[in-house]
C-alpha cells in the first residue's frame, strides 16, 4: 500500500515521540512491502515562533493532500501562564481538527497486565479494564462563541450542539459497541444542561437501530467516580467534547501513564492520529518522554487502512517492551537508562525479529550488561 502521511510533531515532547512512531511506520513499510512517505509540517507554539500563526495555511494544505496525519503534541508553558495571549498553540490543534472535520475521537483505555502494579489504583480494581471512549471532537464548548467584556470582568463560552453533530458520533459509537461487549454509556449532565438533554434525546432515538447494544446514561460527575472505582463496568463511553477530554485523561491512571494513551480522530474525509497527552514542555529533549502513545496512535493509523497484521505486530512490540520493562521513567522503570529513542529502537527491532525469545532479545538488542 502507498500512503502519504503528514507528520505534525508540534511542541515539547511532540517531536521526540513522533520520531519513534515514524521509525516504527518505516520499519513496518519495509517489512510488509508498503511505500509510506512522510511530509512534516509546523503546528502549535513552534509554528507561532516561525510563522506567527499556530496553524499555517501550508500545514492545512499538506494535511489535506495526505492520506492521514500523525500528530505529536501541542502547547508551551509560556502561553499557559499568560491568560492574555491572543494567539495560543492550542488553536493549531483545534484548528486542524475543525479544518479536517475530525468529529469522532476514539480513545482506547486498556489496562495492561504487565503494568497493573504500576498504576496508582489497586490491581483488583483495574485488571481487565478495556474501554473505548468516543469523544465528539469538533463542536461543543470548545468551538462555541466566546466573549470577554471590555472591562475584563465578564466572560462566556457557549456550548452549542446541533443534531447532526451528535448523530454522527453516536452512530460510530454504537457500531463500535456492536463489535465489542455491546454496552454503550452516554456520559452527560442532562440534569443541568440543555445540550446534554439534546444528546440524551438523540441517543434514545438512535438506540432502537442497535437493539443488540445495551445503553446506559450517566452524569459526568458520577462517571468520573465510577471510572475509578469500577472501570470494568464500561465498554463504549460516548460523550461530548469537554467531558471526553477530562474523562480520557482521568482514565490514564487506570493504564498507568498518560504516555500510553493513543487516539484516532476520524472525519468523513480525513483522519488524524494523536496521543492524548500534551507537550509536557519541561520534559522536552531529555529523552524521558514515553513514545508508546504515539506508537500506538501509529498502530491505529494502520488499523484505519485495514493493515491489521501490521497493526497487531506493532501492538505486540509494545506489549513486549512493557513485559521486558523496556520503558521510560514515567512507568517507574526498574532500569533507569531507557530513553525515548531506546523504546522506539526496541519496538523497531521487534518488528524485524518478532520470533526471537525474550531473553535473547533483550541481550542482543539492548545489551543486557548495560541495563541489568
Ligand atoms: C487533548 C488535549 C487538547 C484538547 C488540548 C491540547 C487542546 O488536551 O487532545 O485531549 O483539549 O482536546
Ligand atoms: Mg486532553
Automatic annotation (TrEMBL):
GO terms for molecular function: 3-isopropylmalate dehydrogenase activity; metal ion binding. This is 3-isopropylmalate dehydrogenase. Homodimer. Its cofactor is Mn(2+); Mg(2+). One of its GO terms (biological process) is L-leucine biosynthetic process. GO terms for cellular component: cytosol. Residues 4-347 form the Isopropylmalate dehydrogenase-like domain. Belongs to the isocitrate and isopropylmalate dehydrogenases family. LeuB type 1 subfamily. Its EC number is 1.1.1.85. It comes from Algibacter pectinivorans. It holds the Pfam family Iso_dh. Keywords: Amino-acid biosynthesis, Branched-chain amino acid biosynthesis, Leucine biosynthesis, Magnesium, Manganese, Metal-binding, NAD, Oxidoreductase. The keyword Secreted does not apply. It is an enzyme of class 1 (oxidoreductase).
